[in-house]
Amino acid sequence: QVQLAESGGGFVQAGGSLRLSCAASRSIFSLAYMGWYRQAPGKQRALVATITSGGRTNYEDSVKGRFTIARDNAGHMVYLQMNSLKPEDTAVYYCTASTGVGNYWGKGTLVTVSS
């Protein structure tokens, strides 16, 4: 079991920045990876970025160069720094953790980007 809690969502104008945080009940060093997904209105949940315990990262193409995923040294916090935000980034952002056997999800945090 992994409990996840996201924070940091909010309302921002296009071009602005937000940082999302995810607090995990287990360290990333005991997990396969952690990451962020998002679900825009009327769309399916989609990958944003992932990070492994070794620090290897993966990004969805539309956020490359704008978003950065990182973890703290203890491995219980994962962050998503979002810069140059666009209206199309508006979505509920979910933190996820994979044990390699199953995936766990937070409740999500809403990010709204106005034009």
Structure description:
The protein is built from no helices and 11 strands. The radius of gyration is 13 Å and the shape is globular. The protein is 0% helix and 52% strand. β5 (46-52) and β6 form a beta hairpin. The protein starts with a strand and ends with a strand. The protein is an all-beta fold and 115 residues long. The relative contact order is 0.32. The strands form 2 sheets. Strands 2, 4, 5, 6, 9, 10 and 11 form a 7-stranded mixed beta sheet that branches. It has a 4-stranded antiparallel beta sheet with strand order 1-3-8-7, with no helix packed on it. The model has no long low-confidence stretch (mean pLDDT 96).
What's the topology here?
Blueprint: E1 4-7, E2 10-13, E3 18-24, E4 33-39, E5 46-52, E6 57-59, E7 67-71, E8 77-82, E9 91-98, E10 103-105, E11 109-114
